[in-house]
């Protein structure tokens, strides 16, 4: 079967390419289902980390291997103990071992949901990133009228800004890319969209201005600035992958801050995301910028590795 796999080139640079002859999955048994992939979404942060041999990338000895956790597909076969899913059901699979594969076999009680009728299948292919955003906002639990700073206007940050606004928060988003900030302005969930490139952070982000700071960017060495931006008693959530977090203890102690490290997402996040998306409460149309055939994988991943800001939501059609 076809699969997009991560591998290392002869020059020791990593790439992701479509291969035609990856081994087929086994026949489903017990409560497993087999799905034929219709769309799969790139997870920009995770897959970019893998391309750059980052802190949570698989080692070279494990390659080549398929990676990804955003798949929309149709059930084509069920195991004998399957109860909740049927042939022809349309589902989203967030299981981390099942991504960018033409066929996937997965247990029906894994990290997946049946999709509502009428949902955009290509937009649902970024439900993994969108569910991380929802899980973050549920963790932060902003109250009506509170000020929230979203750092990073990539896919997850864009959706988090929308969910925070749905809670009644007053949202500011910042980034170093004007194109991404323009998208946030067009969606209309934020009160401010600020370019903080160069020295502009200190000009735009005043000390003690925000009840919550949500850091999706993961820029090394930014922890002190994030804490300075928080009001006394505020909270900071670290979401993007990073090696370590470091900040002056006395700085944080004086502000009585709460530090949280956000997790992945759960079935409940996916179910609520799908419900709100189907009701038109969340805009994913503006975030899915490219829907391309799986055959273009090498070009897309070369861009993600070398010019990551050129991509936002990217989905492969199978």
From TrEMBL:
Residues 156-259 form the Alcohol dehydrogenase-like C-terminal domain. Gene3D superfamilies: Medium-chain alcohol dehydrogenases, catalytic domain, NAD(P)-binding Rossmann-like Domain. CDD domains: 2-desacetyl-2-hydroxyethyl_bacteriochlorophyllide_like. It comes from Caldilineaceae bacterium SB0664_bin_27. Keywords: Metal-binding, Oxidoreductase, Zinc. Its cofactor is Zn(2+). InterPro entries: ADH-like_C, GroES-like_sf, NAD(P)-bd_dom_sf. Belongs to the zinc-containing alcohol dehydrogenase family. This is Zinc-binding alcohol dehydrogenase. GO terms for molecular function: metal ion binding; oxidoreductase activity. Pfam families: ADH_zinc_N (PF00107).
């Amino acid at each position: 079967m076809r699969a997009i796999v991560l591998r290392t080139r002869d020059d020791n640079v990593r790439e992701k390419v479509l291969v035609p002859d990856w081994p087929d999955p086994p026949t489903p048994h017990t409560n497993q289902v087999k799905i034929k992939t219709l769309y799969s979404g790139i997870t920009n942060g995770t897959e970019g980390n893998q391309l750059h041999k980052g802190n949570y990338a698989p080692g070279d000895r494990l390659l080549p291997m398929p990676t990804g956790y955003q798949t929309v597909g149709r059930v084509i076969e069920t195991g004998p103990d399957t109860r909740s899913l049927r042939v022809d059901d349309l589902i989203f699979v967030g299981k981390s071992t099942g991504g960018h594969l033409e066929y996937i076999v997965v247990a029906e009680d894994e990290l997946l949901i049946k999709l509502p009728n009428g949902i955009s299948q290509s937009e649902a292919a970024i439900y993994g990133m969108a569910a991380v955003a929802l899980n973050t906002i549920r963790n932060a639990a902003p109250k009506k009228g509170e000020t929230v700073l979203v750092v990073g206007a990539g896919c997850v940050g864009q959706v988090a800004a929308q969910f925070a606004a749905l809670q009644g928060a007053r949202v500011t988003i910042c980034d170093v890319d004007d194109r991404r900030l323009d998208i946030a302005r067009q969606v209309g969930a934020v009160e401010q969209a600020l370019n903080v490139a160069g020295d502009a952070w200190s000009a735009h982000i005043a000390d003690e201005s925000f009840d919550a700071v949500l850091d999706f960017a993961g820029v090394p060495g930014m922890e002190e600035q994030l804490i300075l931006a928080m009001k006394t008693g505020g909270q900071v959530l670290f979401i993007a992958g990073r090696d370590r977090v470091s900040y002056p203890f006395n700085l944080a102690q004086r502000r009585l801050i709460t530090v949280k490290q956000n997790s992945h997402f759960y079935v409940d996040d996916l179910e609520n995301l799908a419900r709100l998306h189907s009701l038109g409460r969340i805009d994913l149309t503006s975030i899915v910028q490219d829907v391309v055939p799986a055959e273009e994988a090498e070009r897309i991943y070369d861009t993600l590795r070398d010019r990551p800001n050129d991509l936002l939501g990217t989905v492969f059609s199978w």
